[in-house]
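ARCHIVE CARD
SHELF: 3
SLOT: left
DATA:
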Amino acid sequence: MKIIPVKILGYKRSQRYSIWRAVNQAQTIFEKQHAEYRLEVQEVTTAQEMLHFTPVIAFPSLMIGEKLVCVGRFPTKDNILAWLESEVERVEPG
């Protein structure tokens, strides 16, 4: 089983929840298409933790793998699916 780490960064629970919902929808589809992968979703909620990943801490952000893919907006399920596919291609080129 291969794990793709996903981090939802944000102070406000409502912002994290909006992103979490889109991640959850994308996860359901992605894991059906890629049975060998699982997403490990983590919420990052403190400024100190967020500053390890992004200088922008006033707005929500999303990381997939080791890459910051979204800052300051709410991604759609389709955005997240595309980023997950890119992560699979990065891990398994060719």
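SLOT: right
DATA:
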Amino acid sequence: MRILLVTPMPPDRLAPGAVPPLLHAQLTGLARRHAVTLVCVAGPDPAQLEAVARLRAAGFDVQAAERREPAGAARWRRRARFARAWLLHGWPWRTVWYWEPQAQRILDRVLAEQPFDVIAVEDDAAAVYRLAARTPAVLTEHEVGRSRPSATGRRLADLLLERDWRRWPAYQRAACAPFTLVQVFSARDRDRLVALDPGLAERVRITPFGTEVPPPADEPAEPDTLMFAGDYTHPPNVDAAIWLAREILPLIRRRRPDARLRLIGIHAPPEVAALGGLDGVEVLGAVPDLAPYLARAAVVMAPIRTGGGMRMKVLHAMAAGKAVVTTPLGTEGLRGDGAPLPLAVAAGAQELAAAAAGLLADPCACAELGARARAYVVEHHGPEAYARRLERVYEEAVARGPRAVGRA
């Protein structure tokens, strides 16, 4: 197939957060079997521009709207554009940030120069672009709905955050309308999306997500070391880190007094940074490379209680061959065929602590669970397996044809 892939950021297996590594697995898996052209927005973060350069050097067809951090009058013009878009279009701020007029011009040119069998749009932040009306298109909703923002204590900021949050239901309904099919990662997100718009029921497909599989770790794990990693702009990660450090870790330390927890991830808010003052907790924040910290962790914790979408932190740790302790919510988005998952799954703080302490006390059990987890990911969630699942959805979209609905 000839696939046009549209993303709000560059695929990047090295990036923090969940979406860039997912996109990298998608791109690499599909490009081994199909002709893929990528259109994305990159920057102003230099790491995103470097990711585009790596993709091009690897031979991928990448058409990127590259943006640099403006200065002086240009910065004020950008702010004015953001304000107009937020006020006039009714988009949530996240979409306003990722929208780039240059990307629309690139899309118009690419679509005029060559035909595509299907257009794959990743995340509703990229659903605002005009696409070819005669080409079937598939939207992947990375998360249906958004967690309510925490109060900042600043009245105007809290009012704007609340108004922005309330835009999500109407925005997601509108974002899904033009697409032949809509993909989600879990049954929970499918149910949420259909509750938003019952008319979507027959067009929603559940497609468990994928990840890159890193080389096996070449250094041993440190005894009694726990790790949690996440992007703390995502409220469920903030909740998980606080629950883990304040309630679960003390219960683990009753059984394993030397147990220590490393909290890793970008944009840690003050309430997460403050956890570094607790016994056994180290807040590392952003790190240049997660791999060595992952290798040194005896057990990876993912006590997720809220949110939807994918659990990349769980899948990434499994792919690295780590024993993972998580909640039932933390397993969502993994391939559900009824077979037991190679994870330690528990719901409450006591049960999560008991599972983690038991693994810390038995390095052989840790290693065995990690080996099974890695094998599971290779078979069911690596780039090739993910690409095969995507192919089935794309082929169905091609058979159905485009929807006769205009795009903004």
